[in-house]
Protein backbone atom coordinates (compact mmCIF):
# COMPACT_ATOMS: atom_id res chain seq x y z
CA UNK A 1 0.00 0.00 0.00
CA UNK A 2 1.47 3.41 -0.93
CA UNK A 3 2.01 6.01 1.82
CA UNK A 4 -1.10 7.99 2.73
CA UNK A 5 -0.81 11.42 4.25
CA UNK A 6 -3.78 12.32 6.42
CA UNK A 7 -5.09 15.80 5.67
CA UNK A 8 -7.76 16.00 8.33
CA UNK A 9 -9.11 13.39 10.68
CA UNK A 10 -12.59 13.09 12.20
CA UNK A 11 -13.53 10.99 15.19
CA UNK A 12 -15.81 10.82 18.17
CA UNK A 13 -14.65 11.55 21.71
CA UNK A 14 -16.32 8.27 22.66
CA UNK A 15 -13.64 6.42 20.70
CA UNK A 16 -11.57 5.95 23.82
CA UNK A 17 -14.08 3.27 24.73
CA UNK A 18 -13.23 1.37 21.57
CA UNK A 19 -11.01 -1.06 23.44
CA UNK A 20 -13.99 -1.81 25.69
CA UNK A 21 -16.38 -2.78 22.92
CA UNK A 22 -17.96 0.42 21.60
CA UNK A 23 -18.90 0.16 17.94
CA UNK A 24 -17.09 1.80 15.07
CA UNK A 25 -14.99 4.85 14.26
CA UNK A 26 -14.86 6.81 11.08
CA UNK A 27 -11.88 8.70 9.76
CA UNK A 28 -12.23 11.18 6.89
CA UNK A 29 -9.49 12.31 4.56
CA UNK A 30 -10.00 15.93 3.52
CA UNK A 31 -8.20 17.01 0.33
CA UNK A 32 -5.38 19.52 0.63
CA UNK A 33 -7.30 22.10 -1.39
CA UNK A 34 -9.54 22.70 1.63
CA UNK A 35 -6.55 23.94 3.61
CA UNK A 36 -6.17 26.81 1.14
CA UNK A 37 -9.60 28.23 1.94
CA UNK A 38 -9.33 31.69 3.53
CA UNK A 39 -11.25 31.09 6.78
CA UNK A 40 -9.12 29.88 9.69
CA UNK A 41 -11.45 27.21 11.05
CA UNK A 42 -12.85 24.49 8.80
CA UNK A 43 -15.78 22.18 9.49
CA UNK A 44 -16.76 18.71 8.33
CA UNK A 45 -19.75 16.39 8.78
CA UNK A 46 -19.44 12.63 9.11
CA UNK A 47 -22.25 10.09 9.03
CA UNK A 48 -21.00 6.98 10.85
CA UNK A 49 -23.26 4.21 9.55
CA UNK A 50 -22.78 1.28 11.90
CA UNK A 51 -24.54 -2.07 11.89
CA UNK A 52 -27.18 -1.03 14.46
CA UNK A 53 -27.53 2.75 14.00
CA UNK A 54 -26.15 5.80 12.21
CA UNK A 55 -24.60 8.76 14.05
CA UNK A 56 -23.82 12.24 12.72
CA UNK A 57 -20.72 14.06 13.98
CA UNK A 58 -19.47 17.60 13.37
CA UNK A 59 -15.74 18.30 13.37
CA UNK A 60 -13.62 21.43 13.33
CA UNK A 61 -9.97 21.93 12.44
CA UNK A 62 -7.61 24.79 11.80
CA UNK A 63 -6.63 25.54 8.22
CA UNK A 64 -2.94 25.28 9.06
CA UNK A 65 -1.53 21.83 9.86
CA UNK A 66 1.09 20.28 12.08
CA UNK A 67 3.67 18.44 9.94
CA UNK A 68 1.07 17.81 7.26
CA UNK A 69 -1.72 16.49 9.51
CA UNK A 70 -4.75 18.33 10.87
CA UNK A 71 -5.56 18.91 14.53
CA UNK A 72 -9.24 18.03 14.81
CA UNK A 73 -11.88 18.35 17.52
CA UNK A 74 -15.50 17.26 17.72
CA UNK A 75 -18.02 20.06 18.26
CA UNK A 76 -21.67 20.05 19.26
CA UNK A 77 -22.65 23.25 17.46
CA UNK A 78 -23.68 23.42 13.84
CA UNK A 79 -21.27 24.72 11.21
CA UNK A 80 -20.96 28.42 10.53
CA UNK A 81 -23.81 29.40 8.23
CA UNK A 82 -21.66 31.03 5.56
CA UNK A 83 -19.54 27.87 5.34
CA UNK A 84 -22.41 25.39 5.24
CA UNK A 85 -22.49 24.87 1.47
CA UNK A 86 -18.71 24.37 1.48
CA UNK A 87 -18.73 21.94 4.41
CA UNK A 88 -17.41 18.53 3.28
CA UNK A 89 -19.84 15.77 4.22
CA UNK A 90 -19.19 12.04 4.09
CA UNK A 91 -20.98 8.82 4.93
CA UNK A 92 -18.98 5.74 5.81
CA UNK A 93 -20.67 2.37 6.33
CA UNK A 94 -18.98 -0.46 8.19
CA UNK A 95 -19.43 -4.18 8.84
CA UNK A 96 -23.22 -4.24 8.62
CA UNK A 97 -23.03 -3.08 5.01
CA UNK A 98 -20.00 -5.27 4.29
CA UNK A 99 -22.09 -8.22 5.40
CA UNK A 100 -25.03 -7.13 3.25
CA UNK A 101 -22.71 -6.71 0.26
CA UNK A 102 -21.52 -10.30 0.62
CA UNK A 103 -25.11 -11.55 0.85
CA UNK A 104 -26.63 -9.27 -1.81
CA UNK A 105 -24.30 -6.81 -3.57
CA UNK A 106 -27.15 -5.33 -5.61
CA UNK A 107 -29.13 -4.47 -2.49
CA UNK A 108 -26.04 -2.91 -0.88
CA UNK A 109 -25.50 -0.69 -3.94
CA UNK A 110 -29.16 0.35 -3.86
CA UNK A 111 -28.91 1.34 -0.20
CA UNK A 112 -25.83 3.49 -0.81
CA UNK A 113 -27.46 5.10 -3.85
CA UNK A 114 -30.59 6.03 -1.89
CA UNK A 115 -28.53 7.40 0.99
CA UNK A 116 -26.38 9.47 -1.35
CA UNK A 117 -29.46 10.84 -3.07
CA UNK A 118 -31.08 11.87 0.22
CA UNK A 119 -28.00 13.55 1.70
CA UNK A 120 -27.18 15.20 -1.61
CA UNK A 121 -30.37 17.24 -1.37
CA UNK A 122 -29.10 19.14 1.69
CA UNK A 123 -27.09 22.39 1.37
CA UNK A 124 -23.68 20.82 2.10
CA UNK A 125 -20.78 19.65 -0.05
CA UNK A 126 -21.58 15.94 -0.07
CA UNK A 127 -18.56 13.91 -1.14
CA UNK A 128 -20.07 10.48 -1.26
CA UNK A 129 -21.16 7.39 0.65
CA UNK A 130 -19.08 4.24 0.65
CA UNK A 131 -18.43 1.04 2.55
CA UNK A 132 -15.21 1.05 4.56
CA UNK A 133 -13.03 -2.04 4.37
CA UNK A 134 -12.34 -3.92 7.57
CA UNK A 135 -8.71 -2.82 7.38
CA UNK A 136 -9.76 0.82 7.15
CA UNK A 137 -12.18 0.50 10.04
CA UNK A 138 -9.52 -1.07 12.25
CA UNK A 139 -6.71 1.31 11.37
CA UNK A 140 -8.92 4.40 11.73
CA UNK A 141 -9.91 3.19 15.18
CA UNK A 142 -6.24 2.81 16.04
CA UNK A 143 -5.60 6.42 15.04
CA UNK A 144 -8.59 7.55 17.09
CA UNK A 145 -7.43 5.89 20.29
CA UNK A 146 -3.82 7.01 20.00
CA UNK A 147 -4.78 10.57 19.01
CA UNK A 148 -7.00 10.93 22.06
CA UNK A 149 -4.36 9.41 24.34
CA UNK A 150 -1.83 11.90 22.93
CA UNK A 151 0.65 9.28 21.75
CA UNK A 152 0.71 10.73 18.21
CA UNK A 153 0.85 14.45 18.96
CA UNK A 154 0.65 16.55 22.11
CA UNK A 155 0.37 20.24 22.96
CA UNK A 156 3.50 21.01 24.97
CA UNK A 157 4.26 23.47 27.77
CA UNK A 158 6.01 25.51 25.08
CA UNK A 159 2.53 26.02 23.59
CA UNK A 160 3.18 24.12 20.39
CA UNK A 161 2.24 20.73 19.02
CA UNK A 162 5.00 18.14 19.32
CA UNK A 163 5.52 14.44 18.85
CA UNK A 164 5.62 12.89 22.37
CA UNK A 165 9.04 11.58 23.36
CA UNK A 166 9.47 8.17 25.00
CA UNK A 167 5.80 7.35 24.46
CA UNK A 168 4.68 4.07 22.90
CA UNK A 169 1.60 3.85 20.72
CA UNK A 170 -1.10 1.41 21.83
CA UNK A 171 -2.89 -1.35 19.98
CA UNK A 172 -6.66 -1.12 19.48
CA UNK A 173 -9.42 -3.72 19.76
CA UNK A 174 -12.74 -2.65 18.29
CA UNK A 175 -15.77 -4.82 19.05
CA UNK A 176 -18.60 -3.60 16.84
CA UNK A 177 -22.04 -4.91 16.08
CA UNK A 178 -21.11 -7.03 13.06
CA UNK A 179 -17.32 -7.36 13.24
CA UNK A 180 -14.27 -7.14 15.45
CA UNK A 181 -11.01 -5.39 14.48
CA UNK A 182 -7.52 -5.69 15.90
CA UNK A 183 -4.83 -3.18 14.95
CA UNK A 184 -1.34 -2.64 16.33
CA UNK A 185 2.22 -1.69 15.38
CA UNK A 186 4.07 -5.03 15.21
CA UNK A 187 7.60 -3.66 15.01
CA UNK A 188 8.42 -5.99 12.10
CA UNK A 189 7.38 -5.82 8.43
CA UNK A 190 3.90 -7.16 7.68
CA UNK A 191 4.23 -9.48 4.72
CA UNK A 192 0.52 -9.88 3.99
CA UNK A 193 -0.59 -6.82 2.02
CA UNK A 194 -4.21 -7.49 3.01
CA UNK A 195 -3.37 -6.72 6.65
CA UNK A 196 -0.67 -4.09 6.14
CA UNK A 197 -1.39 -0.37 6.56
CA UNK A 198 0.94 2.61 6.31
CA UNK A 199 0.25 6.11 7.66
CA UNK A 200 2.32 9.24 8.00
CA UNK A 201 0.95 11.27 10.90
CA UNK A 202 2.41 14.51 12.25
CA UNK A 203 5.73 13.83 10.53
CA UNK A 204 6.10 10.24 11.81
CA UNK A 205 5.67 7.01 9.84
CA UNK A 206 3.57 4.15 11.20
CA UNK A 207 3.42 0.64 9.73
CA UNK A 208 0.48 -1.26 11.17
CA UNK A 209 -1.09 -4.69 11.18
CA UNK A 210 -4.89 -4.51 10.93
CA UNK A 211 -7.36 -7.36 10.55
CA UNK A 212 -11.15 -7.47 10.71
CA UNK A 213 -13.24 -10.51 11.66
CA UNK A 214 -16.58 -10.23 9.91
CA UNK A 215 -19.59 -11.73 11.78
CA UNK A 216 -17.72 -11.64 15.08
CA UNK A 217 -19.27 -8.44 16.38
CA UNK A 218 -21.55 -8.37 19.41
CA UNK A 219 -24.86 -8.46 17.50
CA UNK A 220 -23.77 -11.17 15.07
CA UNK A 221 -22.32 -13.29 17.88
CA UNK A 222 -25.63 -13.08 19.74
CA UNK A 223 -27.49 -14.15 16.60
CA UNK A 224 -25.21 -17.19 16.20
CA UNK A 225 -25.72 -18.08 19.85
CA UNK A 226 -29.51 -17.81 19.63
CA UNK A 227 -29.56 -19.84 16.42
CA UNK A 228 -27.49 -22.58 18.02
CA UNK A 229 -29.61 -22.60 21.19
CA UNK A 230 -32.79 -22.79 19.11
CA UNK A 231 -31.51 -25.96 17.46
CA UNK A 232 -30.30 -27.42 20.73
CA UNK A 233 -33.48 -26.79 22.72
CA UNK A 234 -35.92 -28.45 20.35
CA UNK A 235 -38.77 -30.22 22.25
CA UNK A 236 -38.32 -33.85 23.34
CA UNK A 237 -34.71 -34.45 22.39
CA UNK A 238 -33.93 -38.14 22.39
CA UNK A 239 -30.78 -37.68 24.45
CA UNK A 240 -27.87 -35.39 25.05
CA UNK A 241 -26.24 -36.98 22.03
CA UNK A 242 -28.84 -35.16 19.93
CA UNK A 243 -27.08 -31.84 20.49
CA UNK A 244 -26.30 -30.76 16.94
CA UNK A 245 -23.01 -29.71 15.41
CA UNK A 246 -24.17 -26.08 15.74
CA UNK A 247 -23.08 -26.22 19.40
CA UNK A 248 -19.54 -25.46 18.26
CA UNK A 249 -20.70 -21.81 18.01
CA UNK A 250 -21.95 -21.71 21.61
CA UNK A 251 -19.59 -20.39 24.33
CA UNK A 252 -18.25 -22.99 26.79
CA UNK A 253 -20.32 -21.68 29.73
CA UNK A 254 -23.52 -22.10 27.74
CA UNK A 255 -22.52 -25.63 26.77
CA UNK A 256 -21.96 -26.52 30.41
CA UNK A 257 -25.42 -25.29 31.44
CA UNK A 258 -27.10 -27.30 28.71
CA UNK A 259 -25.28 -30.49 29.64
CA UNK A 260 -26.33 -30.08 33.27
CA UNK A 261 -29.97 -29.89 32.17
CA UNK A 262 -29.57 -33.20 30.41
TrEMBL record:
Alphabetized Pfam families for the sequence: GDA1_CD39
Record's catalysed reaction(s): a ribonucleoside 5'-triphosphate + 2 H2O = a ribonucleoside 5'-phosphate + 2 phosphate + 2 H(+)
Signal peptide: none
Keywords assigned: ATP-binding, Calcium, Cell membrane, Disulfide bond, Glycoprotein, Hydrolase, Magnesium, Membrane, Metal-binding, Nucleotide-binding, Transmembrane, Transmembrane helix
EC number: 3.6.1.5
Gene3D superfamilies documented for this protein: 3.30.420.40, Exopolyphosphatase. Domain 2
Cofactor: Ca(2+); Mg(2+)
Keyword Magnesium among UniProt keywords: yes
Localisation per UniProt entry: Cell membrane
InterPro entries (alphabetical): GDA1_CD39_NTPase
Keyword Iron: no
Topology of this chain in the membrane: Multi-pass membrane protein
Top-level lineage group: Eukaryota
Enzyme class at the top of the EC tree: hydrolase
Family: Belongs to the GDA1/CD39 NTPase family.
Protein name: Ectonucleoside triphosphate diphosphohydrolase 8
Organism this protein belongs to: Willisornis vidua
Amino acid sequence: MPPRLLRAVGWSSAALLGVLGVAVFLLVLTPAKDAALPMRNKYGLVFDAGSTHTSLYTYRWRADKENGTGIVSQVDACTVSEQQRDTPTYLGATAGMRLLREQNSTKAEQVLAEVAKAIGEYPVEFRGARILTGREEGSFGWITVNYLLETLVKFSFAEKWEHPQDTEVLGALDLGGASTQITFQPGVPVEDRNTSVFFRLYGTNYSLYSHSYLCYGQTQALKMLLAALHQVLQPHPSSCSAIPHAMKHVPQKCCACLWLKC
